[in-house]
Amino acid sequence: MAELQISAVEKVYPNGFKAIHGIDLEVADGEFIVLVGPSGCGKSTLLRMIAGLETVTGGTIRIGDRIVNELEPADRDIAMVFQNYALYPHMSVYQNMAYGLRNRGFPKDQIEQRVQKAAGILQLDGLLDRRPRQLSGGQRQRVAMGRAIVREPSAFLFDEPLSNLDAKLRVQMRVEIKQLQRRLGTTSVYVTHDQIEAMTMADRLVVMNAGVAEQIGTPIELYDRPSSVFVGGFIGSPAMNFLAGQVDTDGRHLLLGNGARLALPADGAPAEPNRLVTIGVRPEHLAPAEDGPLRFEVELVEHLGADTLLYGEASAATGGGNGDKGGLVTVRLSGHHALAMGTVLGLTAEPAQLHLFDAATGRRL
Amino acid sequence: MIKRVTFKHKWLPYALLAPQLLITLVFFIWPASQALYYSVLQQDAFGLRVDFVAFDNFAYLFSDPTYLESFEITIMFSVSVALMSLSFALILAVMADRVIKGATAYKTLLIWPYAVAPAIAGVLWYFLFNPAVGINAWILRAWFGYDWNHTLNGTDAMLLIVIAAAWKQISYNFLFFLAGLQAIPRSLIEAAAIDGASPLKRFWTIVFPLLSPTTFFLVVVNIVYAFFDTFGTIHATTRGGPYGATNTLVYKVFNDGFIGLDLGGSAAQSVVLMVIVITLTVVQFRYIERRVEY
């Protein structure tokens, strides 16, 4: 068990490409941290730097009380689960799990005991003599987990471990991994590009974009107060709606590009009048209202059972403005709604549910 | 489902197959049947009499100490060639696999020797080791005090043809080993590194076992090569000598048949070689090709 401390870590490849632009992160003992972001954002690179599979070109990585920058992967006391599982195909399940212990010179009886214990936890008891190719995807995933836990390392590193599984199994394994981590209380860093996986598993998540940690926080913090347009759009499904606008001269309203006027929270706007902003509002925070400031024409309806998703164009309810059509908007209503295509609704949003971002930088105001 | 092409004309498939069949018939089936035919006959050296002797030629072969000795020489030779070319090729492939800058240049240069004809390869090494003018022979004498002479010393002669034959084959093996190495997922090596295996241990416990299908394949290919394709190398250098020290089975077929003019005995030796190559091919198909999959 150990804390993990990443300070000002940078990665510059020999060809000059800067993959990581100085990331600071402190992971508490036993915490489950998820690194999430689109492909190419540097999340896997950061994980591999923690593992020692990539060199660190700037800053320090500390596991427990040791700076591990220059240590070999084997000496960092970490275990890693790979996307393709990386099981040794010519070894049995037992040998796969025992390999790391054998290399470290554990006595035979202790290896036996640890492997049996891990196999029990992961329900692999009857499979110890099989070869990886004789196992199903979920079982292989468990063996990869087993190989990590027999070592009892100070940290687990997961590199998109569920992306090779089908959707149903993915949900199941997600729960299993989370429960196992709770039970073992081992500090974990988990990389994924799937925001649902990130939201459901993380104690805290790090949203990464182009080598920068855009925001670090609990799933709910990120959901409720995204620090940038990028985080707002990345966390939550369906994605947050964004509309271009401007703070009105009175400072109490927002003027949308399509001419609609939305009220701001009574405690004052977070921005001075006339400032150009991007307004973010989640699909579930848009509600139908007869006299709502937005006019919404339904173009597509998706019935998900618990929810109904409406896609369409939003424009100003009253005349005036520049007459622009506005933007594409998603609305999420709970329950069933029999709405035909082409139906026109009025929409409104709670002032408190509006997120304001600077139009130029995309940062939260 | 395999997609089948259907021809409208009955004769077209035969016409398309004809060139290949013709080549097989003229250069393989016909000579092979001639060898079978001659192997049960005995001719006098002047070609005046031909007698049917059934299996006498074979019986004579296996009671002939020079033939049995040639068998031993051939086995020694092929095992040495296979071992030498495989191990050097593997070392080179492992190193080339790590090279990032200029990898293509290395690979291209390492593949070149394969384009050299066996006889030329033989002559090349023959010069290098020539006791009078060869630089290698000179180095051996000057630095190690070893008086190399492959025209007199049987061991030297054997070493010479092993080196010449193996050198040429390294390129071929290198290509296959490199492809095999590149097919091993990087993450396996990384997982092993995290599992605390030193680079050497990673090689022996992960890389080498995963390469074994390639290795098995190459062992058979190399043995077949050493058995059958090295005639040119030997003919251009030692000519089976000195005192039959490098008289391999293939060279003996030529020697007995075309120099000794014992057509029946030579044909019987060819038949024995044919049986060996058939056996090796069967082994290759039945056991090795099936084991390729993990």
Automatic annotation (TrEMBL), chain A:
One of its GO terms (biological process) is glycerol-3-phosphate transmembrane transport. GO terms for molecular function: ABC-type transporter activity; ATP binding; ATP hydrolysis activity. GO terms for cellular component: ATP-binding cassette (ABC) transporter complex, substrate-binding subunit-containing. The keyword Translocase applies. Transmembrane segments: none annotated. Residues 4-235 form the ABC transporter domain. The keyword Transmembrane helix does not apply. This is Sn-glycerol-3-phosphate import ATP-binding protein UgpC. It comes from Thalassobaculum fulvum.
Automatic annotation (TrEMBL), chain B:
Gene3D superfamilies: MetI-like. Keywords: Cell inner membrane, Cell membrane, Membrane, Transmembrane, Transmembrane helix, Transport. It holds the Pfam family BPD_transp_1. The chain crosses the membrane at residues 12-30, 73-96, 108-128, 157-181, 202-228, 267-288. One of its GO terms (cellular component) is plasma membrane. It comes from the Bacteria. It is a multi-pass membrane protein. The keyword Transmembrane applies. It is found in: Cell inner membrane; Cell membrane. One of its GO terms (biological process) is transmembrane transport. Coiled coil: none annotated. Residues 71-284 form the ABC transmembrane type-1 domain. InterPro entries: MetI-like, MetI-like_sf, UgpAE/MalFG_permease. The keyword Cytoplasm does not apply. The complex is composed of two ATP-binding proteins (UgpC), two transmembrane proteins (UgpA and UgpE) and a solute-binding protein (UgpB). Part of the ABC transporter complex UgpBAEC involved in sn-glycerol-3-phosphate (G3P) import. Probably responsible for the translocation of the substrate across the membrane. Belongs to the binding-protein-dependent transport system permease family. This is sn-glycerol-3-phosphate transport system permease protein UgpA. It comes from Thalassobaculum fulvum.
